[in-house]
TrEMBL record:
Domain Type II secretion system protein GspF: 131-261
Transmembrane segments: 6-29, 87-105, 246-264, 276-294
Domain of life: Bacteria
Keyword Repeat: no
One GO location term (cellular component): plasma membrane
The name this protein goes by in its record: Tight adherence protein B
Pfam families: T2SSF
Main location: membrane
UniProt keyword annotations, A-Z: Cell membrane, Membrane, Transmembrane, Transmembrane helix
Localization (cell): Cell membrane
InterPro entries, A to Z: T2SS_GspF_dom (IPR018076), T2SS_GspF_sf (IPR042094)
Amino acid sequence: MNTPLLLLLVFFSALAVLTAFLDLLTLFAKKRLPHQKGIGKRWKEAGVYRETVEKRKQKKRDKRFNQTDVIVFILGASVLFSVGLMFFRSIFLAVLFIFPALYFPKYRRGRMERKKTQLFLQQFRSAMGSIATSIRAGTSLQIALKRCEDDLKKELIAHKSKPVLDEINEINHDIQFGMSVDEALRQFKEKMKLEDVTQFVDSLLAVRSKGGNINHVIHNTSERISDKIMVQQEIQVATAQKRMEANMLSIFPVVFVLLIMVVSPDYLRPMYESTVGTFMLFIGALLLLANFFIGKKVTNIDL
């Protein structure tokens, strides 16, 4: 073989090996493997999609929630420090006023969970009605679950969040790949950990295992749970005014003090000239924060 051609071949071979090595180092540094196109779709068709891709998505969501908690704390601490510095005129008290911001991420998570639960129960009411109607028509529970999925797709087509549809879809997916109906429902109950879901699933499992009139049992159970959800929604509407009053009681003193500081600054001067007066302002601000959170807790009525 010609020597220049051999040298050229060796050069390009070495260049290819070096490029592959650099690509491998890049992948190792980014802690990821090459992603094959369409692998997620094939995994989903094979029934292992939830065990791989969805777990990674859940980890990303958890990481995003942690980052959001830090951002919420930083924003809350900044607001409280600014308010404390404006009202107390003391850096030390303003720094102490930051500590209630540690509760803000927990309060935000609890509020999001309550909203998510309320949305789930509203959609779960429709799901129970669909399942009860299908069973009264003489279909089996497995077919009723499939029809429930189709009904929810039509009913919730304009909704952005569809937690019940996602869960029913997962149940049908598990049944399709060999899991029994009882085991799929039991897994759904353990995952949700909601009293209404537990009652509905337990009634289904009890009738299927011990026998009985499944139409009568499901109709009565779904009707009772639906009435409970409706009453809870009516309570939320009835307590809306009280929640607004609690917010006004927390906001009005702050607005009132701001007006006094603008209209008559000398009126509050004795409070800042003594340590006791400044400390009393600090205690008053803490009581306002406590009033806000206690008011939210009192007006949040669960059945």
